[in-house]
TrEMBL record:
Binding residues annotated for ATP, in chain numbering: A10, S11, G12, K13, S14, L15
Pathways per UniProt: Cofactor biosynthesis; coenzyme A biosynthesis; CoA from (R)-pantothenate: step 5/5
Taxonomy of the source species: Bacteria, Bacteria division TA06
Root EC class: transferase
Any Pfam family matching the protein: CoaE
Record EC number: 2.7.1.24
Keywords: ATP-binding, Coenzyme A biosynthesis, Cytoplasm, Kinase, Nucleotide-binding, Transferase
Protein name: Dephospho-CoA kinase
GO terms assigned for molecular function: ATP binding; dephospho-CoA kinase activity
């Protein structure tokens, strides 16, 4: 079974992916991690430097915090980043999916990369905006920056087979909910 987990920032996708991976005993593909690897390839680094300027390069590496500030403050910049990333990222994700019969793909915007046809089930994880802001602040992101990231991402459509609402204040309550979800998927 190939399961996709999508949803906006700070909705709880990583927790859902980890819990289901553990419960179903299948590997997890972390799209963010793959993105971090791709961003450091010479070709992509050069394209990013040309698009966003030399200020995003520190010690010959992409300063992801600086790049994040740029792209999450201007939707056109985020689109430019996605355009640079699209082909190599999609190609790598498709390879990872083809290499695994059973796998969980954690990827916020999997629909933008047209990956739904390669998955058996898609879970869309969501949470109230206020709770997502609170979670980002707890990860030491200033409130203004948290709001920028949430607003520019603007994932409001429910593009999945299963809607997972993570409005739990207590993580243990959400984990209990995920155990029940895992039983249904098993």
């Amino acid at each position: 079974m190939k399961i996709g987990i999508a949803g906006p920032i700070a909705s709880g996708k990583s927790l859902v992916a980890s819990q289901l991976s553990e419960c179903l005993h299948i590997p997890k593909i972390d799209a963010d991690k793959i993105g971090h690897e791709i961003i450091e390839t010479f070709e992509i680094k050069e394209k990013l430097k040309n698009e966003f300027g030399k200020s995003i390069i520190v010690d010959e590496k992409i300063d992801r915090k600086m790049l994040g500030k740029i792209v999450f403050s201007d939707k056109s910049k985020l689109t430019a980043l996605n355009n640079i990333f699209y082909s190599p990222f999609r190609k790598r994700i498709l390879k990872e999916l083809s290499d695994n019969d059973d796998v969980i793909l954690e990827m916020a915007i999997l629909h933008q990369y047209r990956l739904e046809n390669f998955l058996d089930t898609i879970l869309f994880v969501t949470a109230k905006k206020e709770l997502r802001v609170k979670r980002l602040i707890e990860k030491e992101l200033p409130k203004e920056e948290a709001l920028k990231r949430i607003n520019v991402q603007n994932i409001t459509v429910y593009p999945g087979d299963v809607l997972v609402e993570n409005n739990f204040e207590c993580i243990d309550d959400f984990k209990e909910y995920l155990k029940k979800l895992c039983e249904l998927l098993n």
